[in-house]
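Run folding on both entries below.
>entry_1
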Amino acid sequence: MSAVSGRWGDLKARVLSALVMVAVGAVEIWLGGLPFAALVLLVTGAMVWELARMTGRPGQGAMPLALAALAVAALAGALWLPSDHAELLLAAPALALALTPRRDRRIATVYGLAMLMAGYGLIELRDLGMVALIWLVAVVVASDILGYFAGRILGGPKFWPAISPKKTWSGTAAGWLGAALVGLGFVVWAGAGWGLVALSPLVAFAGQMGDIAESWIKRRAGVKDSSNLIPGHGGVMDRFDALTGAVVVVIALGLVLPLPLPGV
């Protein structure tokens, strides 16, 4: 019984947190516009606050809160300032992370920039329509769920034991398969191009790497969760790390080639 409870001990928390996030996320995605942007701004600020706390030196005082406020202001400015170069503001929080005393300065800087890019990308995707954003979220969720169950049922060799000891190759591959099936579903029912079937596992892999990067930061900081902002379920980074990686890759690929995004 103890082995079973150990293997599935976090299932209830994962299911409950997933249900809450799906409900809130669904309403906000449906509303779009300012309500959705406000949610993304709040999430981005919370993630930067967590990152600054985990990588900061002792006695940093209000620095994490100041960096969170800077992140919110920078993202808002990049979205709404009437300038062709407003997107450069996205780098401001990362620069601040690089210039303030902290451990793991490089990874904090890169991850901080990724957070701002992800926030910006989410709002831009929603402005293009709901379908593309729903696809992206569905890919991340399907990859996470299938990876979780396959990893615990099938087990096997670890994917990257030094950083994320629970992740297995079986779970990782199952996540890719789940993402491909999501892509196929959007091809069949949403009229997306067949390239989406190949793009979806790549986006899922980016999400998995976002999760692993956050796990590495937490291990270096000696903490189990990024914070306790979500009672019983850890921090905001713990829930949005995979989505961060996925959105950044979609943005990067979209800059160099046309993507077969559904509904666009």
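>entry_2
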Amino acid sequence: MSTPDHLAAIQHQQALIVLDGALATELERRGAKLQDRLWSARMLIDNPALIEQVHLDYLLAGANIVTTASYQATFAGLAARGLDRGQASAVLARSVQLARSARARFMALKPHEPLPLVAASVGPYGAYLANGDEYRGQYGLSDQALWDFHHDRIATLLAAGADLLAFETIPSLQEARVLSHLLNEAFPQAWAWLSFSCRDEVHIAEGNRLDECMDVLSKNPQLLALGVNCLPPAWVPTLLAQARQATAKPLLAYPNSGERYDAVHKTWAGSTDPQAFGEAAHGWQQAGANWIGGCCRTTPADIAAISQWARTDR
């Protein structure tokens, strides 16, 4: 069964596709130290077993898709840590292998559940810079430079057995276009979703209107869903309404928990409640989202709260 058919079969059984939640902040919650340019990808080297356990816990919470720990794993970033080309390829492949291993463990425990899918995370160029540019864009790079940056990482992740790609936290229409063209021209058998980081309830991080971006990307049949991630939950309904006016594709949303990040002290402020997050997610579905999960500071409990109603509201 193809990836699109598999996803359609899952959504025939429940109200929406349930994505997983945060990886890096969940690893930190479990004691991982991620003060590193590689962020969560550091654990691919230091503690891969912890990554696999987080994947498994999200599957047990009801996620239909788990996203690999490759968001900030790039050939350039791994080279800066002293890894040669072969070692870097092995780290990238390991991110997929860990998710697939967690899936195998899940299916051994829950053999009658739908087979979950593995999405290989492809973070933006700004994530490699590790300076917050995934929330600003404006890299000043050519299309060819972005193509070259992303191409080999995507090839490695697909060769390792990812079911689809997650182009996530993309701040600019330029980078989104490059990724879309790369998918068509270099990987015509691959599937992906693409989600933007946003600066407010109307614009993506670099400044284009979200609906304009949706209109451009809608023409690519390999992009199975479009949407937003890593943003305040309160922005989601308005952004989804805008996106729905511009595309008939499935929409996805996986915002942060709602807590606020203090970049000066590198701490989070506020509180979160899984039940409230799950109820908010119900509203995002009513606003047009077909695929829903969580980003920074969300946990397996948040995903369980979404899955609970997604599996009964049919």
